[in-house]
Design goal:
With about 325 residues, this protein is an alpha+beta fold. It has 3 domains: about 110 residues, no CATH class; about 150 residues, Rossmann fold (3-Layer(aba) Sandwich); about 35 residues, no CATH class. The longest helix is centred in the C-terminal third of the chain and has 29 residues. The strands form 2 sheets. It has an 8-stranded antiparallel beta barrel with strand order 1-2-3-4-8-7-6-5. Strands 9, 10, 11, 12, 13, 14 and 15 form a 7-stranded mixed sheet that branches. Helices cover about 25% and strands about 30% of the residues. Strand 11 and strand 12 form a beta hairpin. It is extended and about 85 Å long. It contains 6 helices and 15 strands. It comes from Acidiferrimicrobium australe. Keywords: DNA-binding. This is ERCC4 domain-containing protein.
Length: about 325
Protein backbone atom coordinates (compact mmCIF):
# COMPACT_ATOMS: atom_id res chain seq x y z
CA UNK A 1 0.00 0.00 0.00
CA UNK A 2 1.34 3.45 -0.95
CA UNK A 3 1.83 6.11 1.71
CA UNK A 4 1.67 9.86 1.99
CA UNK A 5 4.80 10.87 3.87
CA UNK A 6 5.29 13.96 6.03
CA UNK A 7 8.74 14.82 7.30
CA UNK A 8 10.35 17.71 9.14
CA UNK A 9 11.78 20.30 6.77
CA UNK A 10 15.56 20.30 7.31
CA UNK A 11 15.87 23.88 6.01
CA UNK A 12 15.97 26.11 9.15
CA UNK A 13 15.34 29.27 7.11
CA UNK A 14 12.07 28.04 5.61
CA UNK A 15 8.76 29.27 7.03
CA UNK A 16 7.14 25.97 6.01
CA UNK A 17 8.09 23.39 8.66
CA UNK A 18 7.11 20.17 6.84
CA UNK A 19 7.88 18.30 3.66
CA UNK A 20 5.07 16.41 1.95
CA UNK A 21 5.85 13.53 -0.43
CA UNK A 22 3.06 12.33 -2.74
CA UNK A 23 3.53 8.91 -4.38
CA UNK A 24 2.67 9.99 -7.92
CA UNK A 25 4.98 9.64 -10.87
CA UNK A 26 8.51 9.64 -9.51
CA UNK A 27 7.29 11.22 -6.27
CA UNK A 28 6.10 14.82 -5.89
CA UNK A 29 7.55 16.88 -3.02
CA UNK A 30 6.08 20.02 -1.45
CA UNK A 31 6.94 22.26 1.47
CA UNK A 32 3.83 22.69 3.62
CA UNK A 33 2.81 24.42 6.83
CA UNK A 34 0.58 21.68 8.31
CA UNK A 35 0.29 17.91 8.28
CA UNK A 36 -3.31 17.88 6.97
CA UNK A 37 -5.75 20.59 5.74
CA UNK A 38 -8.20 20.47 8.65
CA UNK A 39 -9.64 23.98 9.03
CA UNK A 40 -7.94 25.98 6.27
CA UNK A 41 -6.44 25.25 2.89
CA UNK A 42 -2.69 24.68 3.32
CA UNK A 43 -0.27 26.49 1.04
CA UNK A 44 2.01 23.94 -0.66
CA UNK A 45 5.24 25.01 -2.32
CA UNK A 46 6.45 22.48 -4.96
CA UNK A 47 10.17 21.68 -4.85
CA UNK A 48 12.39 19.27 -6.81
CA UNK A 49 12.09 15.65 -5.72
CA UNK A 50 15.76 15.56 -4.74
CA UNK A 51 14.95 17.95 -1.87
CA UNK A 52 13.43 14.99 -0.04
CA UNK A 53 16.16 13.99 2.48
CA UNK A 54 18.01 10.69 2.17
CA UNK A 55 17.30 10.08 5.85
CA UNK A 56 14.05 11.98 6.49
CA UNK A 57 12.74 12.77 9.95
CA UNK A 58 9.30 11.24 9.41
CA UNK A 59 6.50 13.02 11.26
CA UNK A 60 3.57 11.02 9.91
CA UNK A 61 2.85 8.17 7.52
CA UNK A 62 -0.64 8.10 6.01
CA UNK A 63 -1.61 4.88 4.17
CA UNK A 64 -3.44 5.68 0.95
CA UNK A 65 -6.36 4.00 -0.71
CA UNK A 66 -5.76 5.96 -3.92
CA UNK A 67 -3.92 8.94 -5.39
CA UNK A 68 -4.77 10.18 -8.87
CA UNK A 69 -4.37 13.27 -10.98
CA UNK A 70 -7.58 14.82 -12.32
CA UNK A 71 -6.89 17.83 -14.53
CA UNK A 72 -5.04 20.50 -12.57
CA UNK A 73 -5.53 18.71 -9.27
CA UNK A 74 -4.37 15.58 -7.43
CA UNK A 75 -7.01 13.65 -5.48
CA UNK A 76 -5.77 11.87 -2.35
CA UNK A 77 -7.85 9.29 -0.45
CA UNK A 78 -6.41 8.05 2.85
CA UNK A 79 -7.06 4.52 4.10
CA UNK A 80 -8.50 5.51 7.48
CA UNK A 81 -11.84 6.19 9.08
CA UNK A 82 -11.68 9.99 9.42
CA UNK A 83 -10.16 12.79 7.36
CA UNK A 84 -9.93 10.54 4.35
CA UNK A 85 -10.06 12.93 1.41
CA UNK A 86 -7.88 15.81 0.37
CA UNK A 87 -6.73 17.42 -2.83
CA UNK A 88 -3.70 19.31 -4.13
CA UNK A 89 -4.98 22.04 -6.43
CA UNK A 90 -2.82 23.92 -8.91
CA UNK A 91 -4.32 27.38 -9.28
CA UNK A 92 -3.55 31.09 -9.58
CA UNK A 93 -3.68 33.67 -6.79
CA UNK A 94 -2.72 37.32 -7.12
CA UNK A 95 -1.47 36.58 -10.63
CA UNK A 96 0.97 33.85 -9.52
CA UNK A 97 0.93 30.08 -9.90
CA UNK A 98 0.21 28.46 -6.54
CA UNK A 99 -0.66 25.08 -5.05
CA UNK A 100 -3.08 24.56 -2.17
CA UNK A 101 -3.67 21.39 -0.19
CA UNK A 102 -7.34 21.29 0.71
CA UNK A 103 -9.95 19.00 2.19
CA UNK A 104 -13.70 18.86 1.40
CA UNK A 105 -14.20 21.27 4.31
CA UNK A 106 -11.79 23.83 2.86
CA UNK A 107 -12.20 23.26 -0.90
CA UNK A 108 -14.07 26.54 -1.49
CA UNK A 109 -10.94 28.49 -0.64
CA UNK A 110 -9.12 27.46 -3.85
CA UNK A 111 -10.37 26.90 -7.36
CA UNK A 112 -8.73 24.51 -9.84
CA UNK A 113 -7.01 26.07 -12.84
CA UNK A 114 -9.82 25.27 -15.27
CA UNK A 115 -12.36 27.31 -17.23
CA UNK A 116 -15.79 26.97 -15.65
CA UNK A 117 -18.98 27.12 -17.75
CA UNK A 118 -21.07 30.30 -17.75
CA UNK A 119 -23.83 30.83 -20.32
CA UNK A 120 -21.84 29.04 -23.00
CA UNK A 121 -20.62 25.54 -22.23
CA UNK A 122 -17.02 25.79 -21.00
CA UNK A 123 -16.99 29.38 -22.24
CA UNK A 124 -16.51 28.29 -25.87
CA UNK A 125 -17.92 30.88 -28.26
CA UNK A 126 -18.01 28.66 -31.35
CA UNK A 127 -17.82 24.91 -30.77
CA UNK A 128 -17.55 22.71 -33.86
CA UNK A 129 -19.45 19.45 -33.44
CA UNK A 130 -18.99 16.62 -35.92
CA UNK A 131 -22.25 14.81 -36.73
CA UNK A 132 -22.11 11.32 -38.17
CA UNK A 133 -23.36 11.15 -41.75
CA UNK A 134 -25.60 8.19 -40.86
CA UNK A 135 -27.39 10.06 -38.06
CA UNK A 136 -31.10 10.52 -38.71
CA UNK A 137 -32.90 13.57 -37.29
CA UNK A 138 -29.64 14.89 -35.81
CA UNK A 139 -29.38 17.42 -33.02
CA UNK A 140 -29.09 20.97 -34.39
CA UNK A 141 -27.94 22.75 -31.20
CA UNK A 142 -29.97 25.69 -32.48
CA UNK A 143 -29.98 27.58 -29.17
CA UNK A 144 -26.22 27.30 -28.68
CA UNK A 145 -23.17 28.75 -30.42
CA UNK A 146 -22.37 25.54 -32.27
CA UNK A 147 -21.33 24.77 -35.83
CA UNK A 148 -22.31 21.28 -36.95
CA UNK A 149 -20.36 19.52 -39.69
CA UNK A 150 -21.41 16.23 -41.28
CA UNK A 151 -18.58 13.70 -41.23
CA UNK A 152 -18.22 9.90 -41.21
CA UNK A 153 -17.49 8.98 -37.60
CA UNK A 154 -15.87 5.66 -36.68
CA UNK A 155 -17.98 5.55 -33.50
CA UNK A 156 -20.61 7.70 -31.86
CA UNK A 157 -23.14 10.09 -33.38
CA UNK A 158 -21.60 13.40 -32.23
CA UNK A 159 -17.94 14.19 -31.63
CA UNK A 160 -15.34 16.91 -31.16
CA UNK A 161 -11.76 16.94 -32.39
CA UNK A 162 -8.57 18.63 -31.17
CA UNK A 163 -5.27 18.81 -33.03
CA UNK A 164 -6.57 16.50 -35.75
CA UNK A 165 -7.78 13.70 -33.46
CA UNK A 166 -11.19 12.81 -32.05
CA UNK A 167 -11.13 13.44 -28.31
CA UNK A 168 -14.75 12.72 -27.40
CA UNK A 169 -17.91 11.22 -28.84
CA UNK A 170 -21.51 10.74 -27.74
CA UNK A 171 -23.78 7.92 -28.91
CA UNK A 172 -27.46 8.95 -28.90
CA UNK A 173 -30.20 6.44 -28.11
CA UNK A 174 -33.97 6.57 -27.91
CA UNK A 175 -35.48 4.06 -25.49
CA UNK A 176 -36.54 1.73 -28.30
CA UNK A 177 -33.09 1.92 -29.90
CA UNK A 178 -31.46 1.30 -26.52
CA UNK A 179 -33.51 -1.84 -25.91
CA UNK A 180 -33.00 -3.09 -29.46
CA UNK A 181 -29.23 -2.57 -29.39
CA UNK A 182 -29.00 -4.23 -25.97
CA UNK A 183 -30.88 -7.36 -26.99
CA UNK A 184 -29.07 -7.67 -30.33
CA UNK A 185 -25.62 -7.09 -28.81
CA UNK A 186 -24.92 -4.00 -30.95
CA UNK A 187 -24.51 -1.76 -27.92
CA UNK A 188 -21.80 -4.02 -26.53
CA UNK A 189 -19.71 -3.51 -29.67
CA UNK A 190 -20.52 0.22 -29.75
CA UNK A 191 -19.22 0.69 -26.19
CA UNK A 192 -16.08 -1.24 -27.06
CA UNK A 193 -15.42 1.20 -29.91
CA UNK A 194 -16.28 4.27 -27.83
CA UNK A 195 -13.87 3.10 -25.11
CA UNK A 196 -10.97 3.56 -27.55
CA UNK A 197 -11.49 7.34 -27.41
CA UNK A 198 -10.09 9.52 -24.60
CA UNK A 199 -13.66 10.45 -23.59
CA UNK A 200 -17.03 9.00 -24.64
CA UNK A 201 -20.59 8.55 -23.39
CA UNK A 202 -24.01 7.24 -24.33
CA UNK A 203 -27.01 9.52 -23.82
CA UNK A 204 -30.55 8.11 -23.64
CA UNK A 205 -33.55 10.31 -24.46
CA UNK A 206 -35.66 8.89 -21.64
CA UNK A 207 -35.77 8.43 -17.87
CA UNK A 208 -34.21 5.37 -16.33
CA UNK A 209 -37.57 4.59 -14.71
CA UNK A 210 -39.08 4.04 -18.17
CA UNK A 211 -37.16 0.77 -18.39
CA UNK A 212 -39.39 -0.73 -15.71
CA UNK A 213 -42.53 0.11 -17.68
CA UNK A 214 -41.49 -1.96 -20.70
CA UNK A 215 -43.99 -4.60 -21.74
CA UNK A 216 -42.42 -6.55 -24.63
CA UNK A 217 -39.30 -7.47 -22.67
CA UNK A 218 -38.66 -8.15 -19.02
CA UNK A 219 -37.39 -4.93 -17.41
CA UNK A 220 -34.87 -6.86 -15.32
CA UNK A 221 -33.20 -8.14 -18.49
CA UNK A 222 -32.60 -4.57 -19.71
CA UNK A 223 -31.50 -3.31 -16.29
CA UNK A 224 -29.06 -6.21 -15.84
CA UNK A 225 -27.62 -5.72 -19.33
CA UNK A 226 -27.04 -2.02 -18.70
CA UNK A 227 -25.36 -2.72 -15.37
CA UNK A 228 -23.11 -5.36 -16.96
CA UNK A 229 -22.04 -2.95 -19.71
CA UNK A 230 -21.21 -0.22 -17.18
CA UNK A 231 -19.09 -2.62 -15.15
CA UNK A 232 -17.31 -3.82 -18.29
CA UNK A 233 -16.73 -0.32 -19.71
CA UNK A 234 -16.77 2.10 -16.74
CA UNK A 235 -15.08 4.82 -18.82
CA UNK A 236 -18.17 5.16 -21.04
CA UNK A 237 -21.09 6.36 -18.88
CA UNK A 238 -24.67 5.75 -19.95
CA UNK A 239 -26.63 8.88 -19.04
CA UNK A 240 -30.42 9.03 -18.93
CA UNK A 241 -32.09 12.36 -19.72
CA UNK A 242 -35.81 13.01 -19.52
CA UNK A 243 -36.35 13.83 -23.18
CA UNK A 244 -34.68 14.66 -26.48
CA UNK A 245 -34.27 18.35 -25.67
CA UNK A 246 -32.42 17.66 -22.43
CA UNK A 247 -30.33 14.95 -24.09
CA UNK A 248 -29.26 17.46 -26.74
CA UNK A 249 -28.31 19.98 -24.05
CA UNK A 250 -26.33 17.37 -22.12
CA UNK A 251 -24.52 16.29 -25.30
CA UNK A 252 -23.55 19.89 -26.07
CA UNK A 253 -22.14 20.53 -22.60
CA UNK A 254 -20.35 17.18 -22.44
CA UNK A 255 -18.61 17.73 -25.78
CA UNK A 256 -17.68 21.31 -24.86
CA UNK A 257 -16.20 20.14 -21.56
CA UNK A 258 -14.26 17.39 -23.35
CA UNK A 259 -12.90 19.89 -25.87
CA UNK A 260 -11.71 22.15 -23.05
CA UNK A 261 -10.18 19.17 -21.23
CA UNK A 262 -8.23 18.13 -24.33
CA UNK A 263 -6.95 21.67 -24.82
CA UNK A 264 -5.86 22.09 -21.21
CA UNK A 265 -4.59 18.55 -20.53
CA UNK A 266 -1.02 19.12 -21.66
CA UNK A 267 -0.81 22.40 -19.77
CA UNK A 268 -2.15 20.77 -16.61
CA UNK A 269 0.42 18.00 -16.83
CA UNK A 270 3.20 20.53 -17.30
CA UNK A 271 1.99 22.48 -14.25
CA UNK A 272 2.05 19.37 -12.08
CA UNK A 273 5.35 18.22 -13.52
CA UNK A 274 4.25 14.89 -14.98
CA UNK A 275 4.81 13.45 -18.43
CA UNK A 276 1.60 12.47 -20.24
CA UNK A 277 1.21 8.79 -21.03
CA UNK A 278 0.63 8.07 -24.72
CA UNK A 279 -3.12 7.96 -25.36
CA UNK A 280 -4.43 6.16 -28.45
CA UNK A 281 -6.28 8.72 -30.52
CA UNK A 282 -8.63 8.20 -33.43
CA UNK A 283 -7.87 10.47 -36.36
CA UNK A 284 -10.59 13.01 -37.00
CA UNK A 285 -12.36 12.51 -40.33
CA UNK A 286 -11.17 14.75 -43.12
CA UNK A 287 -13.96 17.24 -43.73
CA UNK A 288 -14.10 18.23 -47.37
CA UNK A 289 -16.02 21.08 -48.99
CA UNK A 290 -19.80 20.94 -49.20
CA UNK A 291 -21.67 20.92 -52.49
CA UNK A 292 -22.95 24.42 -51.71
CA UNK A 293 -19.38 25.69 -51.25
CA UNK A 294 -18.29 24.22 -54.59
CA UNK A 295 -21.41 25.59 -56.29
CA UNK A 296 -20.73 29.10 -54.95
CA UNK A 297 -17.07 28.91 -56.03
CA UNK A 298 -18.06 27.75 -59.53
CA UNK A 299 -20.45 30.67 -59.99
CA UNK A 300 -17.78 33.14 -58.86
CA UNK A 301 -15.36 31.50 -61.29
CA UNK A 302 -17.78 32.02 -64.18
CA UNK A 303 -19.16 28.49 -64.58
CA UNK A 304 -22.82 28.10 -65.53
CA UNK A 305 -24.37 25.56 -63.17
CA UNK A 306 -27.95 24.86 -62.02
CA UNK A 307 -29.18 25.62 -58.52
CA UNK A 308 -29.73 21.94 -57.69
CA UNK A 309 -28.72 18.51 -58.92
CA UNK A 310 -25.42 16.76 -59.50
CA UNK A 311 -22.23 18.66 -60.08
CA UNK A 312 -20.48 17.89 -63.34
CA UNK A 313 -17.20 16.04 -62.96
CA UNK A 314 -15.40 18.92 -64.67
CA UNK A 315 -16.62 21.36 -61.99
CA UNK A 316 -15.45 19.09 -59.17
CA UNK A 317 -12.07 18.57 -60.81
CA UNK A 318 -11.66 22.32 -61.33
CA UNK A 319 -12.41 22.97 -57.64
CA UNK A 320 -9.91 20.31 -56.55
CA UNK A 321 -7.24 21.76 -58.82
CA UNK A 322 -7.83 25.26 -57.46
CA UNK A 323 -7.89 24.29 -53.77
CA UNK A 324 -5.93 21.04 -53.53
CA UNK A 325 -8.67 19.28 -51.56
CA UNK A 326 -10.72 16.12 -51.87
CA UNK A 327 -13.99 15.97 -53.72
CA UNK A 328 -17.32 16.79 -52.02
CA UNK A 329 -20.39 14.59 -52.36
CA UNK A 330 -21.62 14.57 -55.94
CA UNK A 331 -25.05 16.07 -55.17
CA UNK A 332 -27.08 17.88 -52.55
CA UNK A 333 -28.86 15.79 -49.95
Amino acid sequence: MSELLLAANPDPDSSLPFLLRVPLGGGLVFRVKATWPRTNAVFAYPVPSDEWPDDPDIVERIPLRSVARRGAAIDIVAARGREQRSQLVYTKARGRDMVFWQSPRTRKQARPDVTLPTARAAGIAGLQVLVDTREQRPYRFATQQVTTVKAPLACGDYAVAHDGALVAAVERKSLDDLVGSLTSGRLRFALGELATLPRAAVVVEERYSAIFALERIRPAVVADALAELQVRWPSVPIVFCDNRRLAEEWTYRYLAAAHTWARDETRALERIGLTPAPTPAVAAPVIGPTVAEVRAWARDAGYAIPDRGRLRAAIVEAYEAAHGVGAPPSSDR
